[in-house]
Amino acid sequence: MVSNAVRAQVAAKWQDSFARLNRSEPGISGLMAFSDAWTLATEFLKPCDLNDLKSRRQYDMRRVRMAFDTINKCRRLPVMMEVFLEDLHKSQHLIAREVESHMNLYSGNSDPEIVRALIFRLVEWYNAWKPPAELGQTIISAYTLAFQTHLFSILPASFAKGIKSLVAATLLGTVSQSSDQRDSALWLAFDTLSLIERYETLITSVGYEYVESHVHETCAGAWSEPMLPKLRSWMLEKIVPWMIWPFARGATNAEEAKTMMQGVGSRFDFHMHKRLCDLRTKEIFDIIVDFPDSVPALHDLKECLQRVDQRAELVQSLRRANRKRLLHPGADTKDILLQYVSTIKCLRIVDPPGVLLFKVADPIRRYLRERPDTIRCIVASLVGDGESGDSLIDDNEPIHPLQQPEAENYADPEWTPEPVDAGPDFRANKTSDIISTLVSIYDSKDLFIKELQVLLAQRLLALKDGNLDRERRNVEILKIRFGEPALQVCEVMLRDMTDSRRIDQHVQSQKPSVMHPTIISRHFWPALEASDMVMPGQFHDLQEQYAKEFSAFKPDKVIRWHPHLGRIQLELELDDRTVEADVPPLEAAFIELFSEKDTWTVDELIERVGTVTRSAALKALGTWVDMRLLKEDSENVFRLLSVAEDVTEVAPPKLGMTSLRIYLLCSRYVIPAVGGEDLPPVISVQQQQAEQMRVYWKFIEGMLTNLGPLGLDRIQAMLKLARGYDRTIEQLGSFMEAAKREGLVTVKDGLWKLGK
Amino acid sequence: MKVHVKHWSAVAQWRWNTGNNNDAAADDEGDVCGICRIPYEGCCPACKMPGDDCPLIWGQCSHVFHMHCLLKWLGTPASKQQCPMDRRPWVTAERKVNNNVGNAAC
């Protein structure tokens, strides 16, 4: 049962509502007027179908406005809005249809123009359904919100792609300055539909991608000029005008636009730097190869790195490239050194404190340390071995003494702490020059000094014209670098050369001789290969004569020959011809023997000259066979050709039996000759070490025999008792490994014992 | 066939003729100075250049030293002018020039 109170309340409400709608008009005329106004207004607002123009009615705007007024007076506007939004909702299918048809078309041909048309169409719909402005901002924004919410809910995923290509098209248009008015209208349409807010990241990414492709197009491989200034002005001229549309719309003056663009502008700027930095990081190895032509690119990179923190990436990329392209067995040591030196120079430009360099250089240095010929290469370039044009050292670089790593001087007012990303072993070597850096690959410079001596000895002994100026100059330069005491030995070697010259002059004045020996001070020259060769015939006489003259000149001294070293110029007088030859001693010795009798077997020959290896003997004979003075009649039996044999018979085109044999013979000799001919007469440092180790092998052998199986450290401890033993345990270890390979020892559980 | 030698650039090394180095030909180590323990063909600790700049001195007692080493030794009061090897009074030997030169060149 409805109580009276309720009844009264309802009545009061009714009265109240009626009064509001009727607005104290007589009777219900107010109510009627409201009803008319309501019908008209809702009819007017009801979203219509743009495609169905016939259904559109023309409204008298004055009446419509009055109707709104009436409704407003009755405070029924919120209700009307609800009804309107409800209608809007019901009409959404019209837009959905439109979007669907456009997008279907777009997915068919991917033409951004279709998206453009769609957007304009959507704006048309939006404007058509938009309530008149006099209804107030609230209604309009509520409408906009409802419209957009629905619109976004029906846009398919492919729309984003469409927008992207459309935006890209506008960007291209702006850049090529062929932009038409439609673009500006388009951006307005974007704004109307709030598409910019919704797709801001997308629009930005279009910009980013464009910048990226431009950087790649213009800068890849272009290292010989600075690209950053060009890129900056390009951004300013091309990208910024485009960016104004999405990011600074509504700016009334340049100042305002600038403020609005600040954030996005610096993002773009960063992006450009990052792209260039990425590109250069990827190219860094080739940039270094191209140094010094690529200096501008390095300056660009330096500037980029200050903006973009990609130092770690740079280090990684370079290390990776080095590992892949440089530090493998196929690369020449000289090339590695060259690249290392270029790397030093390049990274000093990019990063003056040297942190990057330190990180990159470490693997290279470690690798170089493992290469057997690194020292030789460095030393060769130290003395300016001018074979190849690209010497490691810059001739303009002043010669400094080698720098030792020095303790930090904190009292120095210029002192700066180490860079933040420096590793724990980082050593700042700001001032050190290239050579110091190269030498510091090895822990001690003694190795260099030794190698230098070997190299100098080889060069001095190979000297033909007797001009020592060059070597003397080199030694002087090296003295500055390594210090006087280290090169004392080289001094002695040079003095031996001049002394030999003087002695020779004296000896020649006493008794002319064809011999012009170099008399060296042993202990001051690197160990020469030992040889028990004996020169036969007239050579022996010559040696004795000279030795006698020498001892007459220097009564306290005698000389001992190294018969296998040096060169001899010969003139061979045969029955029908004379042959001149410039040959090593062994060759000379053999041909001398052939003057005794015409036919020799290899074994007989070897017996006469003392101990030479069979391969060396065959090689020496091969030299004469090549010169057509000897002929191998049967296996290992050689005959002197006193009368030249028919040349045509030997010529390759008519490969008769003899020529074939000679041909084969030669090739047989040439192959070992590859190693033999160029083999330095001086034993290399490595060989010397092996030689010394042979001595210690005796000790080790004794130890293992007497004491049974021993551990490596025990062997090392006992060897230390031996005089002059200076090997590290690692060196001993590798020596023992080598011995194991030869089957001399076996190892089990870390204990070494003699093999069977 | 006749072989004429026109030019021979050979390599040799010099040794001090200490009288017993003909037998020592095989022994490649060579002898050392009894005072500084450096080979005769090296130079004494005070010198830098070997050979004529740092000659040897022969004693009648048949001991041979670097001249500089021996003079320094004789200069100390403790030496009593004796040979450091056998403590006989030091007498420098007269050198016989050209002894066994013929055998030296092996």
Automatic annotation (TrEMBL), chain A:
SUPFAM superfamilies: Cullin homology domain, Winged helix' DNA-binding domain. Keywords: Cell cycle, Cell division, Mitosis, Ubl conjugation pathway. Residues 409-610 form the Cullin family profile domain. One of its GO terms (molecular function) is ubiquitin protein ligase binding. GO terms for cellular component: anaphase-promoting complex. The keyword Cell cycle applies. Pfam families: ANAPC2 (PF08672), TPR_ANAPC2 (PF25773). One of its GO terms (biological process) is cell division. Belongs to the cullin family. This is Anaphase-promoting complex subunit 2.
Automatic annotation (TrEMBL), chain B:
This is Anaphase-promoting complex subunit 11. Signal peptide: none annotated. It holds the Pfam family zf-ANAPC11. PANTHER family: RING BOX (PTHR11210). Keywords: Cell cycle, Cell division, Metal-binding, Mitosis, Ubl conjugation pathway, Zinc, Zinc-finger. Gene3D superfamilies: Zinc/RING finger domain, C3HC4 (zinc finger). The lineage of its organism: Eukaryota, Fungi, Dikarya, Basidiomycota, Agaricomycotina. GO terms for biological process: anaphase-promoting complex-dependent catabolic process; cell division. PROSITE patterns: ZF_RING_2 (PS50089). It comes from Pisolithus tinctorius Marx 270. CDD domains: RING-H2_APC11. Residues 44-87 form the RING-type domain. One of its GO terms (cellular component) is anaphase-promoting complex. GO terms for molecular function: cullin family protein binding; ubiquitin protein ligase activity; zinc ion binding.
